[in-house]
From TrEMBL:
InterPro entries: Exostosin (IPR004263), Exostosin_GT47 (IPR040911)
Name of this protein: Exostosin GT47 domain-containing protein
Chief place where the protein resides: Golgi
GO cellular component annotations of the record: Golgi membrane
Length: 274
């Protein structure tokens, strides 16, 4: 085989591992080109009473979706010219609809009407059947609302807070968006392995098959801190968060709901997520 073509580097690749890439130089050049030229077009918002409007405070379990909307609108990759776009963002969130008591069936119809309106007004969806379009659904409300729209679920890129197959996650096109609850209750943890006396930690409801098996097999293991229920806050303040400080490996099993900030909590408190 011919020697792979070496592309000129615009900047060094400091943390690359040659074994990861067929050509580290080609990867670095391609990445630099992406940084220079990648563009996203955001479709106009729908009815402000129905669709997503970034709130003043990005807190709680829905904050990740809010940060996504806010950051992409402020991003340097955003373009106002759809003809220059590589990807198209569909800025719709059923979260606000759910707060108004809208049923999942009606949410699906509202989303369907909005997206079909974009398809009829703009030529970009039909070029790829939506393969270069993406949307975010970082909670169970959004996932349920989009379930009735197979043309979006199967074709478009979904940024979801759970890579679980229970939400029809399609690995070759969908993206896992780590959920975060900010502000964190305690400061970040560090390189303090001598203070981490628990080998592993998990606490939560047994609301999935993997969690049931986990609790049954490990709940009596003395090296692990396993609780098959939520930690009782009556025994002290921030008990759940403090367990992360005392643990080397934090177990992050999927549950019945889409949202979980356990992975980002683990990283923040210095515990290896697994």
């Amino acid at each position: 085989l011919d020697e792979p073509r070496r592309l000129p580097l615009s900047s060094p690749l400091p943390a690359s591992r040659p074994s990861v890439y067929h050509s580290p130089e080609a990867f670095a050049a391609g990445y630099a080109e992406m940084e220079r030229s990648f563009k996203v077009y955001i479709y106009p918002d729908g009815d402000p009473k129905t669709f997503y409007q970034t709130p003043r405070k990005l807190t709680g379990k829905y904050a990740s979706e809010g940060y996504f909307f806010q950051n992409i609108r402020e991003s340097r990759f955003r373009t106002e010219d759809p003809d220059k776009a590589d990807l198209f963002f569909v800025p719709i969130s059923p979260h606000k609809m759910r707060g108004k008591g809208t049923s999942y069936e009606n949410m699906t119809m509202i989303v369907k009407d909005y997206v079909e309106g974009l398809i009829s007004k703009y030529p970009y969806w039909n070029r790829t059947l939506g393969a270069d379009h993406f949307f975010v659904a970082c909670h169970d409300v959004g996932v349920r609302a989009f379930e009735g729209l197979p043309f979006m679920v199967k074709n478009s890129i979904r940024a979801v807070c759970s890579p679980s197959y229970n939400v029809d996650f399609i690995p070759h096109k969908d993206v896992a968006l780590p959920q975060v609850l900010q502000p964190f209750a305690l400061p970040e943890g560090g390189n303090d392995i001598e203070n981490r006396t628990n080998l592993g930690f998990w606490a939560g409801h047994r609301n999935s098959k993997i969690r049931v098996i986990l609790a049954r097999v490990w709940e009596n293991d003395t090296e692990l801190a396993i609780s098959n229920n939520r930690i009782n806050r009556a025994i002290g303040e921030l008990v759940y968060q403090k367990q992360f400080y005392r643990t080397k490996f934090c177990i992050c099993p999927g549950g019945s709901q889409v949202n979980s900030a356990r992975i980002s909590d683990s990283i923040h408190y210095g515990c290896v997520p697994g």
